[in-house]
From TrEMBL:
<dbReference type="InterPro" id="IPR026057">
    <property type="entry name" value="TBL_C"/>
</dbReference>
<comment type="similarity">
    <text>Belongs to the PC-esterase family. TBL subfamily.</text>
</comment>
<feature type="domain" description="Trichome birefringence-like N-terminal">
    <location>
        <begin position="81"/>
        <end position="133"/>
    </location>
</feature>
<dbReference type="Pfam" id="PF13839">
    <property type="entry name" value="PC-Esterase"/>
</dbReference>
<dbReference type="Pfam" id="PF14416">
    <property type="entry name" value="PMR5N"/>
</dbReference>
<protein>
    <submittedName>
        <fullName>Protein trichome birefringence-like 23</fullName>
    </submittedName>
</protein>
<feature type="domain" description="Trichome birefringence-like C-terminal">
    <location>
        <begin position="134"/>
        <end position="426"/>
    </location>
</feature>
<keyword id="KW-0812">Transmembrane</keyword>
<dbReference type="GO" id="GO:0016020">
    <property type="term" value="C:membrane"/>
</dbReference>
<keyword id="KW-1133">Transmembrane helix</keyword>
<dbReference type="InterPro" id="IPR025846">
    <property type="entry name" value="TBL_N"/>
</dbReference>
<keyword id="KW-0472">Membrane</keyword>
<keyword id="KW-0735">Signal-anchor</keyword>
<dbReference type="InterPro" id="IPR029962">
    <property type="entry name" value="TBL"/>
</dbReference>
């Protein structure tokens, strides 16, 4: 019976700012060709494999980074309301609501404690907004208020990272049961049976229709992605009306070599040196897709709640992923210690600009559209990534082993759990 439920997808699955300088744009493209092919291919064993040309390393062009102060200055003020996204990390002696031993949903490559991470101090901090209180996530109250509701996190592997955090926290009250998944276990749905609350993650790294992006050999894409900028991904659009709450996120996959289509006609590309096509840049494509996403949402007459999650920064130091970059910090950084990287700056600028344009129209149409701005608080947590501990006991055979670090995804439990404190505040009291 359970096997039948797990494979019965039909029942549920049916129901930069554009750069002015073309040289800079080409530099952006070249730099990210290898980076993107490695970083976002899948959660499989090839996820962090080095591209075949290991000797290639091209420095990014100069694009000013953003400090924490500059990031928070960009957040639109909310008259009469506390801004929960501006604050500080403060000690929390209580620690996380769950552990790697009590939660069975944690993916191996984010199970930092099981994999041998020796320090635990990163677990004992909580986000504290300035000028107001942020209650801790209350899983029982959340489930009670969400009874008979459906949730979906729609995006890439960071969305998957986040959904596992939610699953772990909510399962301290009612153990989630997986009821559906796709063939590759990238899109999945769970049910909290005592409350009839549905929680899904929908794999849609571009939010738009794309082909060839699964064509991966040894962690390297064998052809350009074909990305249709004017066609939203049916993986989520076919479910849109049946969902009460949705969190959309994207951005990182746009760094990959892609050919851009509109009305089934080639517009240009992002890093396609062997093709006689116009280089349009990842910023062009990301802005187009977000604009189409918001147009769809604004016109949808949806009566639930829809959130756009902003980009979650990485924290590579002493190099990039392929040049010995690591993340060895063991506590939150102080304001000014880390700046938002130039890629994250580009993605964030587009997100804020397009959201701001859409939010007024959404409000006029009665659509509840919110900005879930995790960038500022996440920037201050360089200590929260798996680093080398995405692998089991990576230094057991050689304490000097050279390990490719993951400084993008988050340990579970870890700082990403605080996203849920904010999420509950937004959807229940916001």
């Amino acid at each position: 019976m359970m096997k039948k439920m797990l494979y019965n997808l039909k029942s549920w699955w049916r129901s930069l700012r554009k750069f002015n300088n073309n040289v800079i744009k080409l530099g952006v493209s070249i730099f990210f060709l290898g980076f993107a092919s490695w970083l976002f291919s899948s959660q499989s064993t090839g996820f962090f494999q080095v591209p075949s040309d290991k000797n290639t390393h091209i420095s990014p062009p100069h694009v000013d980074s953003l400090s924490y102060q500059q990031i928070t200055d960009e957040i639109p003020p909310q008259e009469g309301k506390c801004n929960h996204f501006i604050g500080d990390w403060i000690p929390n002696q209580g620690g996380p609501l769950y552990s790697n031993e009590t939660c069975s949903f944690i993916d191996d490559n984010q199970n930092c404690l099981k994999n041998g991470r020796p320090d635990t101090g990163y677990l004992y901090w909580r986000w504290n907004p300035r000028g107001c209180e942020l209650p801790r996530f209350d899983p029982k109250r959340f489930l009670e208020l969400m009874r008979n509701k459906s949730w979906a996190l729609i995006g890439d592997s960071i969305s998957r990272n986040h959904v596992k955090s939610l699953l772990c926290m909510l399962s301290t009250v009612d153990k989630a049961i997986e009821v559906e998944h796709d063939e590759g276990y990238k899109s999945r749905r769970w049910l909290f049976p005592l409350y009839n609350v549905s929680l899904a993650v929908i794999w849609s790294p571009f939010l738009a229709e794309a082909s060839n992006f699964e064509d991966i050999v040894n962690g390297v894409s064998t052809s350009e992605i074909e990305l249709h900028l004017d066609k939203l991904d049916t993986n989520w659009t076919k479910l849109y009306k049946s969902l009460d709450y949705m969190i959309f996120s994207s951005g990182r996959w746009f760094v990959r070599s892609s050919i851009y289509y509109e009305r089934n006609t080639v517009l240009g590309c992002h890093y396609c040196p062997k093709r006689n096509l116009t280089e349009l840049g990842l910023d062009f494509a990301y802005r187009k897709v977000l604009r189409n996403l918001f147009d769809y949402i604004v016109a949808s007459n949806h009566k639930g709640t829809i959130l756009l999650r902003t980009t979650a920064p990485d924290h590579f130091e002493n190099g990039e992923w392929d040049t010995g970059g690591n993340c060895k910090r063991m506590e939150p950084s102080g304001e000014g210690e880390f700046d938002l990287s130039w890629l994250n700056k580009i993605l964030r600028e587009i997100e804020l600009e397009e959201f701001q344009k859409a939010s007024t129209r959404a409000s006029e149409n009665g659509v509840n559209l919110k900005l879930f701005d995790v960038t500022p608080l996440s920037l201050l947590r360089p200590d929260g990534h798996p680093g080398p501990y995405r692998f089991f006991q990576p230094f057991s055979k050689d304490k000097n082993a050279k390990i490719i670090n993951d400084c993008l995804h988050w340990c579970l439990p870890g700082p990403i759990d605080s996203w849920n404190d904010l999420l509950m505040e937004m959807v229940i009291n916001g």
